[in-house]
Design a protein that fits this description.
By secondary structure, the chain is of the alpha/beta class. Helix 9 links the parallel strand 6 and strand 7. Helix 4 packs across helix 5, helix 4 packs antiparallel against helix 6 and helix 7 packs across helix 8. It is globular. The chain starts with a strand and ends with a helix.
Length: 465
């Protein structure tokens, strides 16, 4: 008899990895009965024809946001003290004191942080959060769904969504094995593990070491290295278009060489538009010296600002906007969902651009998968002032310590150097691809094409335990 697996989407971030890749097809070939347990507004049944069970009750305990924030800050305080490292406080967002309600929430959270900033305290906070979520109507609702449909296992597509806590608790309380997939390369050191599950699937040996380092209550046998489906499409050559076809579809100039500018979200890079402007100025200068270059601007899918508009308008002869093919189904950042068509676009942007430039984005891995270099901007803009976040702190984060060498990306540390770096890359005198691929293997794992298959095999093994 086929084992029934619930693939659980607490929010939309997992759709890219687990709905729009071959993940489901591979699982069915192995012999699993797959149902998508869907907490998002995106209908997998209507849009993709998948078997799904919708979670209609989204009730969280009113105190959950306060306790979750306190847990994160307490964990970061523990890491700061445990590892004697001041990088951890930089992961915190400032408290809000604008309104009476905000003042109460902030003061309550700070009181909890003061009370629970120890390993034992963090554990107690997690227990308290679980107790709060077990008292919600959503917990009872999800428990009822599980009792009716009786899955053999629940696979949660991200470890970072508070919307998953009550559902996973319901599964655990019914004796159903639970797995959480660690969603992103920077998540573990940032205290973004909000769920406690029976197993944790991670990208690489590095990520496994981090989970065990930051969460001493997790046992080694609970953490399984599988890889991530995130990069599998880059090895799917059926997505490849000819340069002529791709350029025609997106109205690009076939005679130009294009540099991709990958935009960032406003939190990570609040002055991002000025780096695009610097690139445009460098490209214009090189074109005046005989080059024929253009820029493909691909925005961050969850950036809703108009901050780039003026730069794009002034440089419309150079910059071509190719927006990600994502669908906005709500106002929150995690309600902007990718579409399968975006895989094809991103594949061909990587394939037909000369290289990519950005501020500290994981697109470095997308491009090195296509043997294309990456320039990281790492200099301050003159518009930087008090209250605006300096992008330089991004490169001090723990996940950048995984670089095998400083040559794993090309760092532009002075605006005056940008034009020369571009010239050297175009002349094949400068590249980070060799070291970048080593970094890719460290972060993503040794078998980037086998992640979906590895996940299903690991699920199979978990069901045997």
């Amino acid at each position: 008899m086929k084992k029934k697996v619930f693939v659980f989407f607490p929010d939309g971030v997992g759709l890219r990895n687990f709905a729009f890749t071959d993940f489901k097809t591979i699982g069915e070939k192995i012999g699993f009965d797959i149902t998508y347990w869907n907490n998002t507004v995106f209908s997998l049944k209507d849009n993709l024809g998948f078997k799904e069970i919708k979670i209609e009750d989204h009730t969280a305990h009113p105190l959950l946001p306060i306790y979750s924030r306190a847990r994160k800050h307490a964990e970061l305080n523990v890491s700061r003290d445990k590892f004697n490292d001041n990088v951890y406080p930089t992961y915190k967002f400032p408290f809000n004191y604008n309104r009476l309600k905000s003042i109460f929430k902030s003061l309550y959270a700070k009181w909890l942080i003061g009370l629970y900033s120890s390993e034992k305290g963090v554990f107690k906070l997690r227990q308290k959060i679980n107790k709060l979520e077990r008292s919600t109507s959503k917990y009872k609702y999800c428990k009822s769904q599980l009792e009716i449909h009786k899955p053999d296992l629940v696979f949660c597509t991200t470890q970072r969504a508070t919307q998953s806590i009550s559902a996973l608790l319901a599964a655990k309380d019914l004796g159903i094995p639970t797995i959480a997939f660690v969603y992103s390369w920077d998540n573990v050191p940032k205290a973004m593990q909000v769920v406690d599950t029976d197993y944790y699937f991670v990208w690489s040996d590095l990520m496994k070491q981090q989970v065990l380092q930051y969460y001493p209550f997790v046992k080694e046998e609970q953490v399984i290295v599988t890889g991530t489906p995130q990069f599998e499409p880059h090895y799917n050559t059926s997505l490849l278009q000819t340069k002529e076809a791709f350029f025609k579809e997106f109205d690009l100039d076939i005679n130009k060489k294009y540099i991709c500018y990958s935009g960032d979200d406003e939190t990570t890079s609040p002055l991002d538009q000025y780096y695009l402007e610097d690139l445009a100025n460098a490209v214009r200068s090189l074109n005046e010296k005989g080059e024929n270059l253009g820029i493909i601007y691909r925005k961050c899918p969850v950036d809703f600002t108009s901050r780039y508009d003026a730069v794009i308008e002034i440089n419309k002869d150079i910059i071509k906007v190719l927006n990600p093919i994502w669908k906005q189904v709500g106002a929150q950042w995690n309600q902007v969902l990718p579409t399968p068509k975006d895989f094809k676009m991103l594949y061909n942007v990587c394939e037909h651009s000369e290289f990519v430039t950005n501020v500290c984005s994981s697109t470095v891995f997308d491009f090195v998968a296509h043997n294309k270099p990456c320039i990281y901007y790492n200099y301050e803009q003159p518009q930087l002032k008090k209250g605006i976040r300096d992008i330089g702190q991004n490169y001090k984060y723990v996940h950048f310590r995984s670089m095998p060498s400083k040559e794993a990306a090309i760092f532009c540390t002075d605006k005056k150097d940008l034009e020369g770096l571009i010239q050297q890359i175009l002349e094949n005198k400068l590249s980070n691809v060799e070291e970048g691929l080593k970094w890719f293997e460290t972060v993503v794992g040794k078998a980037p094409t086998k992640a979906s298959e590895n996940i299903w095999k690991a699920i199979e093994n978990c069901l045997k335990d």
